[in-house]
Fold this protein.
Amino acid sequence: MLSLRSHLCGQWVSGSGAPQILVDPATEAPVAEVCSDGLPLEQGLDFARREGGQALRALDLAGRGKLCDAAARLLHQHRDELLELGMANGGNTRSDAKFDVDGAAATFAHYASLGAALGERRLLEDGESVQLGRSPRYAGRHLWLPRRGVALHVNAFNFPAWGLAEKAATAWLAGMPVVSKPATATALVAHRMAEVLAPALPPGVLSFVCGSAHALPGLLRDQDVIAFTGSSGTAARLRALPRVADASVRLNVEADSLNAAVLGPDVLPGSETYELAVRDIVREMTQKTGQKCTAVRRIFASSALAATLGEELVARLRDVVVGDPRDERVKMGPLASAAQLAEVRAGTARLATEARRLLGDEALVPVGGVPGRGYFVAPSLFASAAAGAAVAHELEVFGPVATLFEAPDDPEAVAELVARGRGALVCALYTDDRRFAASFIGAAGPYHGRIAWGSTKVAAQAPGPGMVMPELVHGGPGRAGGGEELGGVRGLAAYSQRLAIQGDRALLDALVAPKGG
């Protein structure tokens, strides 16, 4: 059985102690093990700060972008291998594995292009110079400088490739080295990525910790950063750590999210916008078996449309073939772990106490695999009146599960219902009515990091709300964690210190000018 190691101080090291076992979620067969006691964590952090930080700061932004370009090319070269690992350890269908791995490569490629465009400069300016004295000579401006620490990236189980890439690309371009810590249960893809990427990078730029590493956050210093993706409970524990509270270690969180899909009252069955909404909702419920931070959890449609929409969704969800992801007939694989299966079963049971189950109580016979084994669930759809099902506004069931609500026609009233989720990463809005959209976005926007507006004009090219675009920020307020990632050059802010500097305008301009400019 494969034994996974960590990459610290520029070399691969093995831990000790009782092993944690990684399994194939479709068969429950062991695929790898990892031991993480006794790892040189403190020394690894120091090495990354010293060696990796110095190497990155010695490069201009174009040079850092070349590191991202190399990462993108290496992922393409090892793509098929990574896809197989995603199927074996993540329960992904090949399509789901492509979504993860190709998303990772595309994110690295985007930041490679961004680095090339920023060119030979080492400092980024934030806005224009401002006059501070009687004459234009005395001026001030704001700069972004790389923090002199290490970025600890704690990633979730559902996107081992994309999670590593979206955090690492922004940190490297900003000039900070990375220690990447994947979720143990699905670490096989991230481990292989680290094996591929680390030798192609300067020492200390990418470190990797596999297995339990609860001591890591307590070893951080004031110039360090934690970027965390996972549950709100774990995020709360990170916020309470003394190093975070006392040393002001910067913490960026992406947590739970009860994302919504809203169909405006103008949307009619059979219309292009209606078909877009149905396709998106079914995909977002079932892709990665619903284990996506951007998955649709709540659906809002007018009372005139809700019944028809419910019937349409039930019919299409019933056609989703569940089983071993290596079987070409299968469209949805298992959940990632036994713990996830138990949580989804408990969550759907709670939803059923307040909402009517439209789909999901039928006996499930997975296609392929080992009879009686695997963490399989069928899609579940519930229905409720707008004022009902309080559980659906509070509990995120992290699987192929959603609740359909009858909603009023008034956009601000719908926004109030959506806001009961207390903050989300993304909301999908489907309408061709500009007035409805403007009113809804104005009211619902403060509760979201992103709104994906689907309409007739973009139906043929919109990738859906679940596609995280590196050009746009990814994150959200409230229960979604309050953090931000990506967003093009905005993603660098998490790993940079904004500095106000004042003095002679010509000297300030020369400070930020590209080399030779």
